[in-house]
Amino acid sequence: MTMFEGDTPVKIRLADSGRLLGGKCLYHPALLEECRQWLGTENVVVRENTPDGKQN
Fold first, then answer.
1. Are strands 8-13 and 20-25 parallel, antiparallel or unpaired?
2. Tens digit of pLDDT for each residue in 1-56?
3. Do residues 7 and 1 make contact, with C-beta atoms less than 8 angstroms apart?
């Protein structure tokens, strides 16, 4: 994630332990594509907050 430093919250759940890791990165199409290639499309989820702060 160091190549995509930014302010967008990101969460990664480890499949083996179920542990949830949090950090921040740049919301960038290249990062999302890389994640989809490595993790599988079904394992990459983008959720955007609505103006009232709730997630879609």
1. antiparallel
2. 567 889 989 898 888 999 999 999 999 999 999 999 999 999 999 988 777 766 65
3. no
